[in-house]
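CHAIN AND CONFORMATION:

***
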Amino acid sequence: MKPLISIGMPVYNEEIFIEASVASILSQDYENFELIISDNASSDKTQQICLELAQKDRRIRYIRSNTNMGALANFCKTFDSATGKYFMFAGGHDLWSSNFINTCLRTLQTFPSSVLAFPATSWINERNQPVIKETPFYDTKGLDVISRYLFVLWGPMNPVYGLIRMDALKKVRMKIQMLGWDLIILTELSFLGQFAYTKEAVWYRRIKNGEESRKQKMQRYKGTLFSKSNLLSGIMLNIRIPFELVRSILKAKINFIDKISVLLIMLVSAPIKYYISTK
């Protein structure tokens, strides 16, 4: 039977957490899915662990790159390999509540005008202990396109790890290589439909790098998001974002008045967001 849901798990050197992460997916109360693990040339025991897991469960498909292509390209590789009607990303170090998939699927089936459903977020540390961290959320059911865009522009990027309709994802620029990749994807999805939030399921998001300054985070992004052959994408990381947002808005299939309104909002908001991000 063809899987209804494809789960893309891009990984690199996740030997410590990947077994638990995969276990939380395989123990879901919904079973008709495929788990695509794309190994970005890990140098630890990730490959060995994944091969052993794949032998035990036919729903796992393990693929490996011989060279590190960068994290963003590896994300896209899982999407290119997907066959389901719905798609979702999974972190190789995160955990899911057992009803994650089923709850998000029922939400999308209940609200056909929604293109994405995502659960509550709870932060954990490397020892699976809860971390007190405020996590705002938003639900755009019933909202117009301008309101939906505002929520995406100023909200967290967590919904990119929700369950998304594949026909909608195929209409967005999944393969764009840049910082703010998740913002571009969510922006373009917001023009296609609504986002549905459900508090009944939980994404346990793991903090692996401790408390980081903005400078430390930018350095980490430069070293992990892009391949060595694509270093240009890592130069002046924030500069490209407003230009690509303009492209997303101009290509959106929304009416002219809404398009002009969204464009003006973006142009006014861009310098404010940049200023806030530097603090």
Notes: The first strand starts at residue 5 and ends at 11. The domain at 5-206 is CATH 3.90.550.10 (Spore Coat Polysaccharide Biosynthesis Protein SpsA; Chain A).
